[in-house]
Specification:
Order of helices and strands of chain A: HEHHEEHHEEEHHHEEEH
GO molecular function (chains A, B): DNA binding; DNA-binding transcription factor activity
CATH topology of the largest domain in chain A: Beta-Lactamase
Number of strands of chain A: 9
Strand order of the largest sheet of chain A: 6-5-4-9-8-7
Organism (chains A, B): Brevibacterium yomogidense
Distance between the termini of chain A: 46 Å
Shape of chain A: globular
Helix content of chain A: 40-55%
Oligomer: homodimer
Largest sheet of chain A: 6 strands, antiparallel
Keywords (chains A, B): DNA-binding, Transcription, Transcription regulation
Number of helices of chain A: 9
Protein name (chains A, B): Transcriptional regulator, IclR family
GO biological process, one term (chains A, B): negative regulation of DNA-templated transcription
Number of domains of chain A: 2
Chain lengths: ~260, ~260
């Protein structure tokens, strides 16, 4: 576990330490952190201390470790992604006011769908998408919309994977999924009833960036029993996606002016 | 510039590289990044490459470097701070609907005030507070509210600093500032007309956490000429702060249940 001269392994370890936290583990004891990061406790102890010194980690009064505010400050310098969520949010609120429950913004990351922003109605039903969390692409309407826009070799490589079954409705047959992807690309709308959570329907549309390429998906998760008609969900999401596209274009123009 | 055996200096460098970005510099060439991070270009080149490999940085097609989505993902594991902004947001929207312009959530970081969240009316006036940005504590109403709650030695140590003048109205006299802080602590309300931006008034109230201590400040920045009466701003902010306190308490109870 020596540090390599190039420092690569220190960076690896830092990333492993930070990756040990997740929504189910927002704080960890040092020993559980060391185990989850696959580090000897003594190495973890030293690294965690250094990271606390830079406020990348924080030690609670009871000794448990959390990700620090310093991480949040540094990441906020990632204007692109952070600001896409912030720019989209008012328009997501408008969509939420029309169709209720959950409205969310997602991008593709490696082969997962990553949720950047979420706006939920107070009495919204179950939804396992967390902001900053990833889900399997093929079980999420936002994921399918994004996958549908990928080059054919990326789509085909995804379809060759072992596709996880989230509920009894999740499509795991690549042939069926290929048809769903074609349909999503043709109509610009994906709808998956019960594929991620049995009682919910997930819908999504693509969001084009300032130059026309798809940069994100705008999705809704609604209770299948009480959901508005598909047509209304599609229209509300499409109007939201257009508004977000305009807002992104304005923000880019403003940044260029600065 | 050799790596120390403990790896400290690699961590230092990573933090310096990430700190080189700010709202005025969301992307940098490698050479400007190296200069701002105070690293030899060859060292910066290697470290930046490694960081790109972990997606902590991203290289645009034109070669400019940005903070990567991976940083955002890792920082989002900082459930505390990230989620405070998210939990507060709907209540900030409600305050914004009542008094217009900008409503913002801030905490103290070292001796600065750090803005965690901001909700702005579409036609809002000037406001130099960015989400993830810091401002001098004494020129911001949110900063003063937070400073007023600090132990006396922290307040006095702040007042001994060289206090930056942002506008001709900024109070830089520690004696006057001490009076303003006492008043803010007594009334739970701070109001600074033109101290940060000449035409704007900044107001703020404290937000108590689940256990009663002040965890953040809720502020408003309004156009001085068209601002609602102080009493109305104070009431709207105080109601917002109470709602945020309740929401934080509910979120903490929900986390404890998980």
């Amino acid at each position: 576990m020596a540090n390599s001269p190039s420092g690569d392994s220190v960076l690896d370890r830092i990333v492993r330490v930070l990756s040990a936290f997740d929504p189910q583990h927002p704080d960890l004891t040092l020993s559980s952190l060391a185990a989850r990061a696959d580090l000897p406790t003594s190495t973890a102890y030293r690294l965690v201390d250094d990271m606390i010194g830079h406020d990348l980690l924080h030690r609670d009064p009871d000794g448990r470790i959390r990700v620090g505010v310093g991480m949040w400050e540094l990441a906020n310098r990632a204007s692109d992604t952070m600001s896409m969520g912030r720019i989209a949010r008012p328009h997501m609120l408008a969509v939420n006011a029309q169709i209720g429950q959950h409205v969310q913004l997602a991008i593709m990351r490696e082969s997962d769908v990553l949720f950047l922003e979420r706006v939920s109605a107070p009495q919204a039903g179950p939804n396992i998408a967390h902001v900053g969390g990833r889900l399997p692409t093929h079980a999420s309407a936002a994921g399918l919309i994004l996958l549908a826009q990928q080059p054919e070799h990326v789509r085909e490589s995804y379809l060759r994977r072992d596709l996880a079954r989230m509920t009894s409705s999740t499509i795991t047959d690549p042939v069926v999924l290929r048809g769903v992807l074609d349909e999503a690309r043709r109509t610009g709308f994906a709808r998956l009833p019960g594929h991620m959570v049995a009682s919910s329907t997930s819908c999504a549309v693509p969001i084009a960036g300032p130059t026309g390429e798809v940069v994100a998906a705008l999705g809704a998760v609604v209770d299948t029993e009480t959901a508005p008609p598909d047509q209304r969900i599609h229209e509300a999401l499409a109007a939201g996606a257009r508004a977000i596209r305009l807002a992104l274009r304005r923000a880019q123009a403003a940044e260029a002016e600065d």
